């Protein structure tokens, strides 16, 4: 009889249920098949779901019990040994689907009677969430277990468990919707219908991908655990797809319709329940990794092929167990199998470093130049390329099973993780110690964050993080968060995807229909007006809809289009060379390079870099080359200032750091100069506060204020200024004499300190 449902207990053991009332157990290691239990003759199984392995924070090595829904209106809680522990009358008519939430604390069932019900772990009814007029064929929990997605005819409905919260409903297919699935890592929704199409949606009901119509209705869809792949089943059809919708592979097995699909825990294999009484097993192979001149392919479950495209050399890498995850970057290949982790250097493929894994199922590998991160069900582990465990960062409410490359970012000294409980928060750790950075505060944004990325090069104290929020705005901020809070600055809008360069801090992204490279994103903290001049833009319309940046290595960017094809975009090599000159303080070489290239963008980058590094001579040349005459004049005026402190303060002012400039002047005892800075910026209240506090130059502030008001033909209305101006005659000669005295004093101090230094 037809097989209706399948479910994995471990990575190598599967249970299947059929209309012949039998539950079978399949062991893939020994190739044994045994009957677990024969159900009653009136029980026709429809859906099966194993209780999640991490229940109540305790992680079991394998699933212990499952829920089985059947055509007689009941669901059955059955142990691994096949004992029916409880049968519950749930719906009138067949119970068409049953799903545990990710914690295993609640069960959702749907039935032919159009009802959606929530049950406790022990099978007690908690609530009837919805009552439809038509049968509900499929149900899925939201990533946070706070919402439930279910089908209603041609509609998809997302209903929160909380009463009085808005329900989201939209028409998804032109035919009846048969299956749906919601992934907790990428938060995307799959739907399959009798209109012979499968579709991918985001969690707000926006269509991201719609397939061409197939010959037959799509009877099953399923996400892999890490949300990178999904599988589609139909009549004599099994398809493997990328999360963005395009197909990796199409198989035409002789199976009848595939009614149910289940991914193994490690995401390397797939099982399907077939209409002709078969159970189909499929293994994912031929994943590819590329870096510089190396191309690596997983040709069998335990064998990788390394191809060096320069000399056409081919190496085979054999593993003891099947390969689960791999990553190739920064001259190293990191491979995790079910029990071990292998680290290869691209210089030598023969002697990998091997160490044992605690947990087994690695869900994510991220690499930086000096170390790499493994993420598994138990936590985050940072290893050196010599295989030494460096640190294991933790944060409150950590759920590692839902992290992916968009929500975790690693650099040589910093690790950033986006919180899932509060999506506006990013936790930032010191990579070496595993402790929260700086004062231990997390980084908080005003709206939900979608994707994060740390820059890879430069000083630890200047580490930057770029992130895209829900509105698709791109922001940048500094991660070293001692003392003063760095501003979070917006540098782009409608940004779909981003990536930092691996050799220097260039940032690229796709904004709406423009491909953009920010040659020096730090410009926003130096001279915001320059930012638009330090950007390279190119039309991105030939990248198709929703392209994704795969990586940005050297001066080549790899972009994956919506149809799965890869495009390589090359940018000018000069910005990278400019970054290298500046990082080794070769300012003359940098100027020479800009003169040779004759590009305004390069001059603008050099101007910002020079100001950031307080090299005002180079900044003057660069600003002159891009025609910013007012800034050249200001830099010249800074040079004429008598003391080093004043020059530093005015350099800070140049970058818009008013507060820091004032603090520096006050700390070095240059009270008048601090007051004058505020007068020049028309910060009248602050200027008066300083004058009153230090009992000096109150008349200077009042005189400038009076002149300012006279120029605009206004009367004084501020009570504080009126109070201090009472009975005060403004004598400009006296004030000028006082100011000259202050400047002379500053010159004397500068000369004295120069003598001391000498």
From TrEMBL:
InterPro entries: Beta-prop_IFT80_2nd, TPR_IFT80_172_dom, WD40/YVTN_repeat-like_dom_sf, WD40_repeat_dom_sf, WD40_rpt. It is found in: Cytoplasm, Cytoskeleton, Cilium axoneme; Cytoplasm, Cytoskeleton, Cilium basal body. Residues 602-748 form the IFT80/172/WDR35 TPR domain. GO terms for biological process: cilium assembly. GO terms for cellular component: axoneme; centrosome; intraciliary transport particle B. Keywords: Cell projection, Cilium, Cytoplasm, Cytoskeleton, Repeat, WD repeat. It comes from the Eukaryota. WD repeats lie at residues 88-120, 170-202. It holds the Pfam family TPR_IFT80_172. Component of the IFT complex B, at least composed of IFT20, IFT22, IFT25, IFT27, IFT46, IFT52, TRAF3IP1/IFT54, IFT57, IFT74, IFT80, IFT81, and IFT88. Interacts with IFT88. Interacts with IFT57 and IFT70B. Component of the intraflagellar transport (IFT) complex B, which is essential for the development and maintenance of motile and sensory cilia. PANTHER family: INTRAFLAGELLAR TRANSPORT PROTEIN 80 HOMOLOG, OUTER SEGMENT 5. This is Intraflagellar transport protein 80 homolog. It comes from Odontophorus gujanensis (marbled wood quail).
